[in-house]
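Weekly puzzle thread! Below is a chain. First person to post its structure in C-alpha cell form gets bragging rights.
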Amino acid sequence: MANPARDRYGVGANRESDEAYRYFVSGLGIDSTGRTTITHEPEACMPRGARFIRWRGLLVAVLVSAIVWVVGSGAGHGNAQSLRTAAADGPPAPRAYPTLTLPMTPVGGWQRIPVLMYHRVVAPGKGVIFADGYNVPPNHFAAQMQWLQVHGFHPISQIALFDALAFRTPLPSRPIVLTFDDGYVDAVHSVLPVLVNAQRHWPAAFFVITGRIGEGQFLRWDQIHQLELAGMDIGSHTVHHVALGRASRQVATSELVRSAEVLARGLGHPVYWIAYPYGSVTSAVAHEAADAGYLLAYTTHPGMWLRLSMRTMLPRIDVAQQDSLRRFAALVTVASGANSAAPIRRKIP
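Winning reply:
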C-alpha cells in the first residue's frame, strides 16, 4: 500500500532517488506541461511421441486415487489447521499455467520496454487519500489506455516479457507492460473493465499484499481469481508490505517466501513475479528474491532499458494522479523510443 510520506519515485524521500528521476525526466526533456525535447539518450545501464498406458497401471492409479481421496476426506474433518488454510487461501483458480525456467545459456540482450507502475485507480471519496499522488482517477486511466491503443502500443504479459528477455522471443510492435501495486479492489471495479472489453483484451500484472487479502478495500480471493481468469498476471507484494531493503535478512526472506507460498496455494500454480514495496531493494534482497523462485522483480526506480541479468531489479515508470494526458503521452512516447506521436491509422472495433 502506498505510503503518503514516501517519495513517489523511489524507496523514500532521498537524494539518490530524486536525482535518478530528475536524470530520467531531463533525458526525456519533459516539462510540467508535457512538452518533450530530447536532451540526451537515457543510458542502457539505468537500465522452453505418444505414450501408451497399460490398463493395469491405469486401474491401479484409479484405485490409489480413490483411497487417497477417502483418507484425505476423513482426515480433513478432524484437521482444523487444514480447514483454516483452505478458508484463508481459497481454492485454486481453474487456469492452466506453464512451468517457467531460466535458460541455461541466456540469449537475450538489452530491450527498450516501458513498464508502467500504477497503484490505485479510484475517484476521490471517503477513505481515499488523494494528496499522495498514487491515485489515478478512472477517467484519466481510461483516457490513457485509449491513447495507448490509438497510438499502436501493445501491452504484454509477464510471460511474454520473460520470454523476450530470456529467449529473445519476438514481441509485438511498441510493447509496454502495465503493473498495479498493492491489490486494491479498484483492479476489478475500475481497471479490468477498461482492459477487457469490446475494444481490447489487454494483460496486466497485479501485485498483491497477501496479508491483506480480503481486508477493507483490498481484493478478495474470488476477485483475484476473476482477474487471473480474465488473463491477468498475479504477483507478490510481500505479506505485510515491508521495505525489504531495510529489513533483516530473516524478515526479508520470510516475506518473499511466505507470500509466494500463499499465492501458489490460492492460485494452484507457482508465482514468478514480485514488486518490492516502496521499491526498497538491495543486491542481497534481489538474490533472495531469485532464490525464492521469482523470475521477474520490479523496483520503483525509473528507466525503460531491460535485460535478463537485471531481472530481479527491473525499473518502472510511475504514473501519478497529477499527470495530464499530454504528460503521460510524452513519458510513454519517449520512453518507448516511439518518438513519433502520430496515431496509428487503423480501425478500432
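Puzzle host: Confirmed. Bonus trivia for everyone else. The chain has one domain: 15-336.
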